Amino acid sequence: MAAEAGGGGGGGVGSETGRVKRRLHRADDEHQGENEEDMFPVTRRRGGRNYRGGKKVTSTSPWMIGVVSLLGISVFLLLLLALGIVSLPIGSDAPKIQTVDHHFVDEHEKSFIENGDVRKREDQWTEVLSWEPRAYIYHNFLSKRECEYLIELATPHMVKSTVVDSETGKSKDSRVRTSSGTFLQRGQDKIVRTIEKRIADFTFIPVEHGEGLQVLHYQAGQKYEPHFDYFNDEFNTKNGGQRIATVLMYLSDVEEGGETVFPSAKVNISSLPPYYDQLSQCGKNGLAARPKMGDALLFWSMKPDASLDPLSLHAGCPVIKGNKWSSTKWLRMNEYKVY
């Protein structure tokens, strides 16, 4: 009996102990599950909606992600276009020159533009004519059509050329200069503006520092005696300051004579041009540039230290045979105001 009683009491204790252990195991499992939810965000679905840890979770749909991505790419491309990093492709059959606003041009310019690209030039290159004075030749600076255009534009307005009176600043007649000429307004039309912009690019002197183009015509026997382009008086430097450089553009070929010669230039055998034997006697009296349609002669009236250069003395040799057309652009130290 005692043994039976002892066996029944031990069974009751064992049952109770088992129940306690099972409750502890369930508590551990629940606690571990809570920790895992905190550590690993597991999403559960209830009725087609997402929940995590009993809370509703909102998800982003794929099409919304696509729309946001496209908007971002579009903004990025627009930014690149605005900064000029990329550009839109343009067909190779685009016109060579821009459409001209005919409100600002006359009939001459219209006809030249309609008949072809007025700016089409042959191969260009530069040549050092002299270092003392500084003088350079830009070959094919103007196109044939640009030369013809300037001549046609100036022809109806040509008058006998004059020189500037150093005392009064006014023009006066002189036997020193026997050509005829006329002035064009700076920026007069699109073609003139194009040429003036090209001069500014060549010389690194702003367009606003230039006087208006002067077109000159020399017939047989006409000339321009040696002279300086800079001024020795204060009157002529009030507007724009001193003339610092000259660009002389040849608008026609000359059969014989008509050279631009620098009689005071420092010359040696190696500096003589290859066409020296073809020069007139006047052209051999120094260092000379031979007139050729489209070429431009740039020479400086001032030295790099801003002092006047007496070696820039130059002359237009007499035309012996043919006609000489040229156009001159004088460039000032400061802005030259056009009134």
UniProtKB/TrEMBL annotation:
Gly residues bias locations: 1-15
Bilayer topology: Single-pass type II membrane protein
Subcellular location: Endoplasmic reticulum membrane
UniProt name for this protein: procollagen-proline 4-dioxygenase
Reaction catalysed by this enzyme: L-prolyl-[collagen] + 2-oxoglutarate + O2 = trans-4-hydroxy-L-prolyl-[collagen] + succinate + CO2
InterPro entries registered for this protein in UniProt: Oxoglu/Fe-dep_dioxygenase_dom (IPR005123), P4HA-like (IPR045054), Pro_4_hyd_alph (IPR006620), Pro_4_hyd_alph_FE2OG_OXY (IPR044862)
Ranges that cross the membrane: 63-86
Protein family (similarity comment): Belongs to the P4HA family.
Gene Ontology CC terms: endoplasmic reticulum; endoplasmic reticulum membrane
Enzyme class, broadest EC rank: oxidoreductase
GO molecular function: iron ion binding; L-ascorbic acid binding; procollagen-proline 4-dioxygenase activity
Coarse class of the protein's main subcellular location: endoplasmic reticulum
Biased composition (Basic residues): 43-53
Domain Fe2OG dioxygenase: 209-333
